Amino acid sequence: MTSTTQQRSANPQRRRARSGFSLIELLVVLVILSLLGGIVGPRLLKHLGQAKSDTAALQIEDLSAALDIYMLETGRYPTTDEGLNALIEAPAGSDAWNGPYLRKEKVPGDPWGVAYQYKSPGDHGDYDLFTYGADKAPGGDKDARDINNWE
């Protein structure tokens, strides 16, 4: 064997022994990732809650627009008993109904999985449309704040 061949046969063993990471290197990387997760994680969760509130506000705006079109075509808003379902299925005795007024086959729930509250005539206008937010109870702030069509 030549000296070059001996060096080549010895190198793969050395490379195998040196390839990869030591336990200390892995632990350092895990500590750095944990610190980054501790800093970034809470900020991401804050934005996730805000995104749900923003989604609810946008959905209320969309439902309000559909209710306004319903009113223009029928001459009235759906009653509380007819509810938001009147945007998808014609209520009994509504000859001027020209819907559906929503693209989906059912009325969407709020981002927290609860149906939107609808009252017509409303306490704050022709109708009240609202959700109680993450806490599913009146009042609250931040993610738990009530989101409605009158404020």
CATH architecture heading: 2-Layer Sandwich
The total number of structural domains is 1
Distance between the termini: 88 Å
General form: elongated
Number of strands: 3
What do the pLDDT scores average to? 83
Low-confidence stretches: none
Percent strand equals: 5-15%
| SSE order, one letter for each helix or strand | HHEEE
Largest sheet: 3 strands, antiparallel
CATH class: Alpha Beta
Task: Identify the CATH homologous superfamily.
Answer: Glycoprotein, Type 4 Pilin
Biggest sheet, strands in spatial order?
1-2-3
Tell me the helix content.
40-55%
Q: How does the helix and strand content classify structurally?
A: mainly alpha
CATH fold-level name: Glycoprotein, Type 4 Pilin
Characterize this entry briefly:
With 151 residues, this protein is mainly alpha-helical. The protein has helices at residues 3-18, 23-74, and strands at residues 117-119, 128-131, 147-148.
Give an account of the 3D structure:
Helix content is 45%, strand content 6%. The protein has 151 residues and is mostly helical. The protein has one domain (3-148): Glycoprotein, Type 4 Pilin (2-Layer Sandwich). A 3-stranded antiparallel β-sheet has the order 1-2-3, covered by helices on one side. Strand 1 (117-119) and strand 2 form a beta hairpin. The model has no long low-confidence stretch (mean pLDDT 83).
List its salient traits.
151 residues; mainly alpha; Glycoprotein, Type 4 Pilin; 3 strands; 45% helix
Secondary structure layout:
Elements: H1 3-18, H2 23-74, E1 117-119, E2 128-131, E3 147-148
Antiparallel strand pairs: 1-2, 2-3
